[in-house]
Specification:
single chain; mainly beta; Immunoglobulin-like; five-stranded mixed β-sheet; 51% strand; cell-cell adhesion mediator activity
Length: 277
């Protein structure tokens, strides 16, 4: 005689109950939510419309970046700050009350610099302060380097100090040079990092000073009341040379200006005979 086995109805119960999660910005977020029962429960995810755990709306249909797998796993591709908030997972098989769990998804942003490269000038001998500001989740650590060589914030230096402080949206660091010298003209890199990633920005510091004296001055041609001179351009002090001042004097006399010459090769014609120095 055949015996019939009667299957018992069973309300949903958790296999994997979801809990609060943290994800790095732009990563793929996967949140498991599994339940069993008989009949097999239907799994559904919803997200709160606002900042409070209420007014939930269904997920997985209108947004192409969001997927709900058959096993109840919620997948958010390239998760963004807008995806942060309260989520509700439900398991329902029409037997007993619906099983539900509310979790909070926190999207953690790595540091980010709005400006990646900039130039800054300073006069020779003056102080200079280089500032980099990063946005992102705490804790943020900021480190400096000069032409690729690390600068220590812990070891005291008579030439520079490094100070870091928190800001509303991240962190800021100042590199202060007490008295700039020619060797301070360099590429300074600021690297900000936290548990979710890192970013960097570069500052080209240009220390400007007066130009050096022209050299290799030669008389190329001298005839009558004119003379043709040549010289080699000196170190320009990190600033364009706009003009040269040419002076002359007689064997017994004082220097007198002849002409203001634009930078570069020029031919200057004097208003009177010019004797060489």
């Amino acid at each position: 005689m055949m015996k019939l086995l009667r299957l018992c109805e069973m309300p949903p119960r958790w296999i994997i109950e979801p809990t609060d999660k943290e994800f790095a910005l732009s990563s793929t977020a996967e949140i498991q939510c599994k339940a069993d029962g008989f009949p097999k429960p239907r799994m559904a995810w919803k997200k709160a419309a606002g900042s409070r755990p209420e007014d939930y709306r269904a997920l997985g249909h209108s947004d192409s970046s969001i997927q709900v797998r058959d096993d109840g796993t919620l997948v958010i591709n390239s998760i963004q700050k807008r995806d942060e908030g309260y989520y509700l997972c439900e398991a329902d098989n029409q037997i007993g009350p619906t099983l539900s769990a509310v979790i909070y998804v926190n999207v953690q942003a790595p540091p980010h610099f709005e400006i990646k490269l900039r130039n800054q000038t300073a006069r020779l001998g003056d102080p200079a302060v280089l500032v980099c500001e990063a946005r992102g989740e705490q804790p943020i650590t900021i480190k400096w380097s000069r032409n690729g060589a690390a600068l220590s914030a812990r070891e005291p230096s008579p030439r520079y100090t490094i100070r870091q402080q928190k800001t509303d949206g991240g962190a800021s660091s100042d590199l202060s040079l007490q008295e700039t010298s020619r060797r301070d003209s360099a590429t300074y890199t600021c690297v900000a990092s936290n548990p979710f990633g890192q970013d960097n920005t570069t500052i080209n510091l240009i220390v400007q000073e007066k130009p050096e004296v022209p050299f290799a001055i030669k008389v190329l041609n001298k005839s009558g009341r004119s003379v043709e001179l040549s010289w080699s351009a000196p170190y320009n002090g990190n600033s364009d040379i706009f003009q040269y001042i040419i002076q002359y004097k007689k064997a017994k006399g004082r220097c007198r200006p002849v002409h203001w010459a634009n930078a570069g090769g020029v031919r200057v014609v004097g208003s009177r005979a010019i004797d060489p120095w």
